[in-house]
Write a structure and sequence with these properties.
Elements: H1 2-5, H2 9-27, H3 30-45, E1 59-66, E2 71-77, H4 79-99, H5 106-124, H6 128-149, H7 154-187, H8 194-197, H9 207-221, H10 231-237, H11 240-265, H12 267-294, H13 298-319, H14 322-353, H15 364-367, H16 369-383, H17 389-404, H18 406-431, H19 446-464, H20 467-486
Helix pairs in contact: 2-3, 2-5, 3-4, 4-5, 4-11, 4-14, 4-19, 4-20, 5-6, 5-11, 6-7, 6-11, 7-9, 7-10, 9-11, 10-13, 11-13, 11-14, 12-13, 12-18, 13-14, 13-17, 13-18, 14-16, 14-17, 14-19, 14-20, 16-18, 17-18, 17-19
């Protein structure tokens, strides 16, 4: 074990998907399966060596990259990033498994693996230049996947996503360069290290502008209303594997960037930003829930369910106390599992019925009971049924919101009622009623069951016994709160 603990596992985790992508191009798509298997082993090995004190990293690695500009390959792992690493690897495995019968081009899997490397880099990077590079790498391959393998309106959806992405990324890069120059002029040390830049004295008249550039980039990726314009078309037209990664993982990168990058760099501005974030979160909950209720396309309906749930996560961050933050960080993992499972089930329904329109669906329970049971189970999880994972995160978020602003908690409860409405409408329209579509349908095969069963197990485990996950999050949450107190960001 001592030998294993000396291996730079974070670097291995980051580079392995890139190697796998090259292997796919050279030897075919089977290399993607091998890569996912090896990546899963590395993700599990990150727990080796035991825990660490609450306010320190579980693992930290640093390598010289562009020494002239103070850029380094700095990678840090704590409980929050560990959960998001696991989420990324789990959803990558599901994405490859769902795509296997449909997409045989090795380039498709190479792009998925390349994006995965960028996603992992965002969750691990402690250098802002590395963070920016990984931010671009995680999304550009998925845009190509949409443009090449998406639905009828794939080019329009990919172009819209590209425009939103470029606008946010350029604003973020502008803020990073501004901090780089300010820090260099003040200290003589030109560096992109997040820890070093946190000590930069930003002029009061400049801080809101730099923070605003970062916040817009991150909120586009969440996305919150009204910055969600790219989401419905992208989710609807993308191949199911891309939709899984966009909704299950990339949306988390926005919240992660807010608390891991924007907060340490601008603690005072962050405090002033929280009320606005709370309002945006509540608008996203209500608007996303209402649009989910009126949708007729099943995949688009699940896309707006995702918007509403991400609004709850943003509400937990806006409340910014220990209870709400733990709930929001846990909900990052919960939402990724449940929403990805729902999109996977929608893809399986579409493969059997050749339709996603609710008016053309119905009676699925009597013809494919196993698939119907999966849809019902994950729908009840999305609804927030006690004993399943979404409830665990939502109750913590609402308790924390009530403690800070009671009307935030009350408004959030309206979102819970909306969740019952749109979820029950979806279940009723697909599972029961007059059977429509093909008279004979095959139920779930062994491979499909193997893909969804672990997700169902996680949904149940996180709903019944979330304590191990909350323990992982305790250290990062206490570090965030402590940083804001010591820098004068909290009264």
């Amino acid at each position: 074990m001592n030998g294993l603990s000396n291996i730079p596992w974070l670097s291995v985790l980051l580079l392995l998907p890139l190697v796998g992508a090259l292997a796919c191009l050279a030897w075919g798509r089977r290399a993607a399966v091998v890569t996912v298997f090896l990546e899963s082993i590395v993700a599990l090995l990150l727990l080796s060596g035991g825990g660490a004190p609450i306010l320190s990293w579980m693992r930290f690695e640093e390598w010289i990259w562009i020494d002239r500009y103070g850029a380094r390959i700095s990678l840090g792992l704590d409980g929050l990033s560990l959960l998001l690493v696991w989420l990324t690897v789990i959803l990558l495995a599901v994405a490859v498994g769902l795509s296997w019968p449909r997409y045989r081009q090795s380039g498709f899997y190479a792009l998925l693996l390349t994006s995965c490397s960028g996603i992992l880099g965002v969750f691990l990077a402690q250098d802002l230049l590395l963070f920016y590079v990984c931010w671009e790498i995680m999304l550009l391959p998925l845009i190509l996947c949409i443009a090449l393998w998406g639905g009828a309106r794939r080019v329009e959806a990919a172009f819209k996503l590209l425009l939103f992405t470029l606008a946010g990324s350029l604003l973020m890069l502008l803020a990073f360069l501004g901090l780089f120059l300010l820090h260099g002029r003040q200290t003589g040390d030109y560096s992109f290290a997040l820890q070093s830049l946190g000590t930069t004295v930003v002029p009061p008249e400049l801080a809101p502008w730099l923070f605003g550039c970062m916040a817009l980039a991150f909120l586009v990726k969440v996305p919150v209303v009204p910055l969600h314009g790219w989401l419905p078309d992208a989710y609807q037209e993308a191949p199911v594997a891309v939709t899984l990664l966009l909704s299950g993982v990339l949306a988390k990168a926005g919240i992660f960037g807010l608390v891991r990058v924007a907060l340490p760099l601008f603690p005072e501005t962050w405090t002033s930003f929280l009320p606005a974030l709370g309002v945006l979160a509540l608008v996203s909950i209500g608007y996303g829930g209402w649009l989910a209720f009126v949708q007729t396309d099943l995949k688009r309906l699940v896309a707006y369910i995702s918007v509403a749930h991400l609004g709850f996560i943003a509400l937990g961050v806006a409340a910014f106390n220990a209870i709400a933050l733990q709930g929001a960080m846990l909900q990052l993992f919960n939402h990724g599992i449940t929403t990805a499972a729902l999109f996977a089930v929608v893809a399986l329904v579409e493969r059997r019925t050749a339709s996603r329109e609710l008016s053309e669906l119905g009676g699925l329970w009597s013809r494919t009971p196993q698939l119907g049971a999966m849809l019902l189970f994950f729908s009840l999880a999305a609804l927030g049924l006690p004993g399943l994972n979404i409830f665990t995160g939502e109750i913590l978020i609402l308790l924390g919101a009530f403690a800070v602003h009671p009307w935030w908690g009350a408004a959030g409860m309206v979102g819970v009622l909306l969740a019952a409405c749109y979820t029950l409408r979806m279940v009723q329209g697909v599972l029961w009623g007059v059977p429509r579509g093909p008279e004979i349908m095959t139920d779930m095969n062994r491979g499909e069951t193997l893909l969804l069963a672990p997700l169902a197990g996680l949904v149940l485990w996180l709903g019944v016994y979330p304590l191990p996950y909350l323990k992982l999050l305790r250290g990062p949450v206490e570090r965030l709160l402590a940083h804001l107190v010591t820098t004068g960001g909290l009264p």
